[in-house]
Design goal:
Layout: E1 3-4, H1 47-64, E2 70-74, E3 77-79, E4 84-87, E5 90-93, E6 97-100, E7 104-107, E8 113-119, E9 124-127, E10 137-145, E11 150-154, E12 160-162, E13 165-169, E14 186-190, E15 193-197, E16 204-208, E17 213-216, E18 221-222, E19 230-233, E20 242-244, E21 253-257, E22 264-267, E23 273-276, E24 279-280, E25 286-289, E26 295-300, E27 305-312, E28 316-317
Parallel strand pairs: 1-11, 13-14, 17-19, 18-20, 19-21, 20-22, 23-27
Antiparallel strand pairs: 2-5, 3-4, 4-7, 5-6, 8-9, 8-10, 10-11, 12-13, 14-15, 15-16, 21-26, 22-25, 23-24, 25-28, 26-27
Length: about 325
């Protein structure tokens, strides 16, 4: 079953909250809550193994890249038998190195959106909300179920550690809708491009817009939000396709190219208008061209008006 990127409402990224310091070891034999290394107690008979464990822990921790929370390798979620998901072995950072050496399974709830988490104590927990389990946990995936099994696995919003930087993907149509912690440096890929979150009130900054997807349309079509970042052509058509825009919303852009002499008609949604220069359509009207080589890029400037920011060739509005 392929892994998808469908969700826009996903759990917010997290950073580990450090509340104590290593110097606390100097005044107490108790272990600060942030530590996941082993404790070497006085007169301990297993101190050699624990010492070696801590040495390996320090090496692996530096390789993973610091104190962010996310998957470093593995921990892939896939559909299992019936109402179960499989979780592959792997490693993560959750306030320190947390590893699952052996793959495992988890039970999910029928006919629900299930959020699968890997916890700081190296166990897996499934919830029905985007709220992480207490004690520190990272999202591994979202399992969608019907009455008898897992129908799809969605990794939208799952955070990965790549070169010490947090990276994730969501299906947001523009910049991500959430507000991560200010102490986080993260890249999020959405349908509109790649965005950098640098916190401290700077918000999201667009790093790289997506490559355009060319969409030949040969029959009448009503657009939805998923069409926003596609360039429409009429290549291969034998009749003029009528393309109805989604309702205008400030900032949406759409591009159309006439490659065939049958032309393209672009119709505004009910109550919306299309303006090309000084010409404006009626409410719910249209713009069209039958001239090969004509191109039109529209931007919605509010909830009812589409303006042409680029127009080549011959276009008429009505």
């Amino acid at each position: 079953m392929p892994v998808t990127k469908l969700a826009t409402q996903v759990p917010a990224p997290q950073v580990w909250s450090y509340s104590t310091y290593l110097q606390d070891y100097l005044v107490s034999l108790s272990v600060p809550s942030l530590i996941t290394a082993k404790t070497i107690l006085q007169k301990a008979t297993t101190w050699v193994a624990q010492f070696n464990f801590n040495a390996a822990y320090l090496d692996v921790n530096s390789q993973y890249g610091g104190g962010h929370m996310g998957i470093v390798h593995g921990l892939t979620v896939s559909a299992g038998s019936g109402l179960q998901v499989n979780i592959a072995a792997g490693g993560a950072l959750i306030g320190g190195v947390c590893q699952l050496k052996t793959s495992t399974t988890a039970v999910v709830t029928a006919s629900q959106t299930n959020y699968v988490w890997f916890k700081k104590d190296k166990t897996v927990e499934v919830t029905l909300t985007t709220t992480p389990p207490a004690g520190g946990a990272i999202l591994l995936g979202i399992a969608i179920t019907d009455g008898s099994g897992v129908t799809s696995v969605d990794t939208s919003g799952v955070c990965y550690i790549k070169g010490g930087l947090v990276y994730r993907e969501t299906a947001d149509l523009a910049e991500p809708l959430d507000t991560p912690p200010n102490g986080l440096l993260m890249i999020t890929k959405t349908l509109a491009g790649e965005y950098l979150w640098s916190g401290s009130g700077n918000g999201y900054k667009l790093l790289l817009p997506p490559l355009a997807t060319i969409l030949p349309v040969v029959a009448d079509k009503t657009e939805t939000a998923t069409d926003r970042y596609k360039v429409v052509t009429n290549e291969g058509t034998t009749v003029k396709p009528v393309i109805t825009l989604e309702s205008a919303a400030a900032g949406i852009t759409r591009t159309f190219i006439v490659q065939d002499s049958d032309g393209i008609r672009i119709v505004a949604a009910s109550g919306d208008t299309i303006r090309i220069g000084t010409s404006i359509s009626s409410s719910g009207g249209y713009a069209e061209s039958t001239t090969i080589g004509s191109t039109l890029t529209l931007i919605a400037i509010n909830a009812t008006e589409w303006f042409a920011i680029s127009s080549l060739g011959t276009w008429s509005v009505a």
